[in-house]
Design a protein that fits this description.
Strand order of the largest sheet: 1-2
Strand content: under 5%
Structural class: mainly alpha
Distance between the termini: 90 Å
Number of helices: 9
Number of strands: 2
Shape: globular
Order of helices and strands: EEHHHHHHHHH
């Protein structure tokens, strides 16, 4: 027999199994699935276009510079969020792919690119910190490439294993690997974001732009660290509990909660880092004396 659960403003019907009927109805409703996944599609498309617009603004401001870290960061944001938008736009075709390996490639590839995009920001901060402390920076960029290369190589190996064996254990390993990668990304933000934050705090209070940069580094560190930790915990839970699986069609509420917890931080970071680089003064310019 179903039991009633009352709150101040709502009345929920709870079955003997402990599941709420309204949750099941949403999960099984095609209208809700369509609305939630198309909402995610529109949200990711919006953030993708914001990143592209910001990339164009930077290019028009300083066209003489090549592919700086700032430009690459916004380009990768455009690609990552654009891929997510496409996947959610064709959500039914993606989630109903018969080949589990191909489905995981489509769903995990944006996650890998997301990792590369935001660890690029960690690299940028690490270079600033090392330069400020007069430490060598020549090994930082190769370390970034090596770490990303190892992550991609491991993930591709897992995809091949899933394709060949079709083992549920390999699928769990793939999710746990993503969880571990997310944890270390959060750790990277905590280490170098924290170091840069405390370095800026030691600057004189009257230093120009000190407080603005302090807020920028502090907010971005907090947002990105929280985002990757949430990703770490949720992906680990989905690997251990099938009822929390994100890569299925009939868990739209979990998908909405999880992906909104990623897209909102991405939008916040783009907003915080919206400042354009200063215009380059022409070499022929002579100040009036």
């Amino acid at each position: 027999m179903a039991s009633l659960l009352r709150t101040k403003n709502f009345l929920f019907i709870e079955t003997e199994s402990g599941d709420f009927d309204w949750w099941k109805e949403i999960d099984e409703s095609e209208q809700w699935q369509q609305g939630i996944f198309y909402t995610l599609c529109a949200s990711y498309a919006l953030v993708s276009m914001i990143a592209l617009v910001q990339l164009f603004r930077i290019q028009f401001r300083v066209p003489e510079y090549g592919w700086t870290t700032q430009k690459v960061f916004h380009l990768m944001n455009f690609i990552v969020n654009g891929l997510r938008a496409i996947l959610f736009g064709f959500y039914r075709s993606v989630f109903l792919i018969k080949s589990k390996a191909l489905e995981m490639v489509l769903l995990d590839l944006p996650g890998l690119l997301f990792f590369s995009t935001y660890t690029l920001l960690v690299l940028f901060w690490a270079e600033i910190y090392h330069q400020a402390r007069s430490l060598p920076i020549d090994k930082l960029r190769p370390a970034y490439y090596i770490i990303n290369g190892l992550v991609y190589f491991t993930q591709i190996s897992i995809w091949i294993s899933i394709r060949l064996s079709q083992s549920p254990i390999a699928i769990e390993v793939a999710k746990l690997f993503f969880s571990v990668v997310s944890f270390f990304a959060a750790l990277g933000f905590l280490i170098y974001g924290g170091r840069l934050f405390f370095l800026l705090r030691r600057f004189p209070i009257e230093s120009r732009g000190r407080q603005k940069k302090l807020n920028e580094v502090g907010f971005v560190t907090g947002v990105c660290c929280t985002c990757f930790l949430i990703r770490c915990l949720v992906v680990a839970l989905s690997a251990l509990d099938k009822d929390a699986d994100l890569d299925v069609l009939n868990h739209p509420i979990l998908n909405l909660s999880y992906y909104m917890a990623k897209i909102i931080p991405s939008a916040l970071v783009l907003f915080i880092l919206r400042k354009l680089p200063p215009r380059r003064v022409s070499d022929n310019y002579q100040p009036i004396k």
